Amino acid sequence: MCTAIRDDIVSGALAPGSRLIEDILAARYGVSRVPVREALRTLQSEGFVTTRHHAGACVAEPTEQEAADLLDIRALLEPLGAARAAARRSPAHVKVLRGLVRLGRERARHGHPSDLRQLDGWFHETLAQAAGSPSLTALLTQLRRKIEWMYTVELPARAAESWDEHGAVLDAVARGDAERARALMAAHIERSLPVHRLRRPAAPEVSGSKRPVNTARARS
């Protein structure tokens, strides 16, 4: 239930700011109100849902600063995940990652943007699982979903280069070189920033002292 509602929020089927009425959602997904209520609580803890006075549960409307923070957090966590994967990966993880890199390079040569987007997600999810830490894997998975919700990624602009970078990270992971895997992933994340674009105008910031947003990065 939680996954279904989250997927509809990420895809835009449930728009930012829209009310999430339990009865309507229960009918939409063919379930009772109980799993809907539990899912909304979980999604609120993840930041996808918020509660408003007199309105109840609504799809969250992240600010530009909150969107920027996600990319900063990713820049910290994904290199850590790659380093952990180098130390803890199993032969099965390496085999799956090699297959994904092979397919990604092939699709990049022939230009299949929808395939590339899905393969990129699978690569990063498998790498997160290879880290051998359920907590870190859950954080990275949630982070990628929230970035997908807030940003579009212009993958074709650097598809071949991106998959070469994936391949280099994989080689370091397969060799068990944690520091190289960390450094390569950090460089990969940094190079990917210019292809991130906010999906829609972000909600205005509340008044108060905030660090300035680098709009060139958007962090977009």
From TrEMBL:
Extract the ranges annotated as region (Disordered). Answer: 198-220
Which InterPro entries is this protein grouped with? GntR_C (IPR011711), TF_FadR/GntR_C (IPR008920), Tscrpt_reg_HTH_GntR (IPR000524), WH-like_DNA-bd_sf (IPR036388), WH_DNA-bd_sf (IPR036390)
| Domain of life of the native organism | Bacteria
Q: Where is the HTH gntR-type domain?
A: 1-62
- GO molecular function terms noted in the UniProt entry: DNA binding; DNA-binding transcription factor activity
**Keywords for the protein's UniProt record, in alphabetical order:** DNA-binding, Transcription, Transcription regulation
Q: Which Gene3D superfamilies match?
A: GntR ligand-binding domain-like, Winged helix-like DNA-binding domain superfamily/Winged helix DNA-binding domain
**Classification via PANTHER family:** GLUCONATE OPERON TRANSCRIPTIONAL REPRESSOR, TRANSCRIPTIONAL REGULATOR, GNTR FAMILY
- Which protein is depicted? GntR family transcriptional regulator
